[in-house]
Design brief:
mainly alpha, two-stranded antiparallel ribbon, 5 helices, 66% helix, globular
Length: 131
Amino acid sequence: MRGILVRWLLLAIAIFVAAYMIDGIRVAGFMSAVMAAAVLGVLNAFLRPVLLILTLPLNILTLGLFTFVINAILLMMASGVIGGFSVDGFGTALLGALLISLVSWLLTSFINEHGTVQYIDLRHKGANRWE
């Protein structure tokens, strides 16, 4: 449970980063970013798999790049539901979805399922051998 809350907070931070870096994305405050992260999480959990299956041939044709279009659509849907979160157009949503995905992936790559920071401790054991 703690891992989900930490990832939710990190997604809210990623939305703040996107709002700071991209002109067409606006967030009214921290609670708007948290609510946008919650709505985006629900949309990603329930609607995204359906959209991925429906657009599978197009996704295969574009070598997976159409997934960013699906992410942009979901971001625009989240902005339509949350009052303090707005995305101006599809191009802005596409760039924002790319940036949010990148920042969220970067931040959550260090968090394990228990919500704590994880790292790999490698020790050199001799001639090209690490453990």
